[in-house]
């Protein structure tokens, strides 16, 4: 005998945001700066495109995936005479942390729309949380600066604090519990990376992919604005096509558009739609 449950038709309960490229650090440049500096210090060539490929993952895993890339692995073997090991990953991670902390300190400016989103969430009784591939040590550098700018998420979860980082759903689950959400169908996960969208989908949440301010474009706000109209349109077109492949329920250029999307999600929930 099967038991059927009614679809969730309550309110949007929580919005869970990624940090870099989603609500802070337009272009998600701090991690790239740190990885390029780390590999240069090791005498290894790393391109920005390569550095961005594993974006959204916990930083040890990010290093592990970089070292597994054939071109980089060949460089490592030529330099050391052996394949990279887990001990190498751990050593590189500890060398990476100060580079990342410094880059975060330099790139903690909120993306336009973050404060409006926070006000929208408060006005509608929606809890606001963030999660990230950064460690707590890294996030603790950023949070005071975010508070200074007026942004105060009610839950902050780091990849190093859950059994497995993205694309596993555990960070989003932890945010949902800390925010008091009672149904994942009432939660919205917002991210600028494919692995972050996969996290939200694995958690059974609504997902919103951020394009222009994030990893898919990889330019600062001023760099993007300095492109001529045709270049900018082509850049955004390619990035939208890339992020559409993630399976996200919605694509937006920046979180400035998110309140309208959340209102639409609320209408769909009330109509009986599920993520």
From TrEMBL:
Protein name per UniProt: Phosphonoacetaldehyde hydrolase
Q: Subunit structure, briefly?
A: Homodimer.
Listed cofactors: Mg(2+)
- Gene Ontology MF terms in the entry: magnesium ion binding; phosphoglycolate phosphatase activity; phosphonoacetaldehyde hydrolase activity
Q: Which InterPro entries is this protein grouped with? A: HAD-like_hydrolase_sf (IPR050155), HAD-like_sf (IPR036412), HAD_sf (IPR023214), PGP-like_dom2 (IPR023198), Phosphonoacetald_hydro (IPR006323)
Q: Which GO terms describe its biological process?
A: DNA repair; organic phosphonate catabolic process
Q: Which family does it belong to?
A: Belongs to the HAD-like hydrolase superfamily. PhnX family.
Q: Its catalytic activity?
A: phosphonoacetaldehyde + H2O = acetaldehyde + phosphate + H(+)
Write down any Gene Ontology CC term: cytosol
UniProt-annotated binding residues for Mg(2+)? 18, 20, 192
Tell me which EC number(s) this protein carries: 3.11.1.1
Residue positions of the active site: 18, 59
- A Pfam family name for this chain? Hydrolase
Query: Which classification does the entry list for the species?
Result: Bacteria, Pseudomonadati, Pseudomonadota, Gammaproteobacteria, Pseudomonadales
Keyword line? Hydrolase, Magnesium, Metal-binding, Schiff base
Q: What class of enzyme is it?
A: hydrolase
Indicate whether Glycoprotein appears among the record's keywords. Answer: no
Q: Which Gene3D superfamilies match?
A: HAD superfamily/HAD-like, Putative phosphatase, domain 2
Q: What's this protein's function?
A: Involved in phosphonate degradation.
Q: Which PANTHER family match?
A: PHOSPHOGLYCOLATE PHOSPHATASE, PHOSPHONOACETALDEHYDE HYDROLASE
User: Which free-text remark accompanies the cofactor?
Assistant: Binds 1 Mg(2+) ion per subunit.
Which species? Marinobacter litoralis
């Amino acid at each position: 005998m099967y038991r059927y449950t009614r679809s969730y038709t309550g309110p949007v309960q929580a919005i869970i945001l990624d940090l870099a490229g989603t609500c802070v650090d337009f272009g998600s440049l701090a991690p790239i700066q740190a990885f390029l500096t780390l590999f240069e210090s090791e005498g290894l060539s790393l391109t920005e495109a390569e550095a961005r490929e594993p974006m959204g993952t916990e930083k040890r895993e990010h290093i592990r995936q970089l070292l597994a890339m054939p071109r980089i692995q060949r460089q490592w073997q030529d330099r050391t005479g052996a394949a990279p090991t887990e001990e190498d990953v751990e050593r590189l991670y500890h060398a990476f942390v100060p580079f990342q902390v410094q880059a975060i300190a330099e790139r903690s400016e909120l993306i336009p729309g973050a404060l409006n989103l926070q006000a929208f969430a408060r006005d509608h009784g929606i809890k606001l949380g963030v999660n990230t591939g950064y460690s707590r040590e890294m996030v603790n550098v950023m949070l005071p600066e975010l508070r200074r700018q007026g942004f105060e998420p009610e839950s902050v979860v780091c990849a190093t604090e859950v059994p497995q980082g993205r694309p596993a759903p555990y960070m989003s689950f932890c945010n949902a519990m800390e925010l008091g959400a009672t149904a994942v169908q009432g939660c919205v996960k917002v991210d600028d990376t494919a692995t972050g969208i996969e996290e939200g989908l694995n958690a059974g949440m609504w997902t919103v992919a951020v394009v222009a301010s994030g990893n898919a474009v990889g330019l600062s706000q001023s760099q993007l604005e300095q492109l001529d109209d045709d270049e900018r349109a082509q850049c955004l077109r390619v990035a939208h096509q890339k992020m559409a492949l993630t399976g996200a329920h919605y694509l937006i250029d920046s979180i400035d558009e998110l309140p309208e999307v959340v209102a639409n999600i609320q209408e769909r929930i009330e109509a009986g739609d599920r993520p």
